[in-house]
């Protein structure tokens, strides 16, 4: 499959994923009582990551496609996370608990606000350490938010629940946005530590030429 074909296919796959996540939320398939572990939400958030991981590990052409993506663009997409201020607004209206909303909100705002700078200045190999550190912090923020969102209501059943995250529109964050952005973080980090496709192809061709001599 060519890079263009992969681009078209993955775009359609992401669109289908969004439709499924939206439909599942609209049908209340992921909604659970505050005292019940949010297993459906965990499945919805984790399954795309598993699918991506298996695909990435088993297909060299897909890995090459991922390595060919522009990491500056993938990083710039993270800037939408400044919308994390919504968590803070919902906290002030006692719709979300502070133990979840405050770290999730401020973490997203921090990553989103710095994303344009990182995309413009740290995307090159000369700033590899800073770039990877920022990507890792962005991924940790997402994992922390999901972990807190899944456990806060269980630990404090008498407090403000996180049930708002299981209904539209907030449910699209854990079921679609979070796993997609985690995938982008992974690709960006992998690109830094993976030999560029063009260089590897030249190496492979040189090796084949030497063997044929």
Automatic annotation (TrEMBL):
Organism listed in the record: Granulicella aggregans
Keywords: Membrane, Transmembrane, Transmembrane helix
Keyword Transmembrane helix: yes
Name under which the protein is recorded: Uncharacterized protein
Transmembrane domains' residue ranges: 12-30, 36-57, 69-92, 98-119, 131-152, 172-193
Superkingdom as given in the UniProt entry: Bacteria
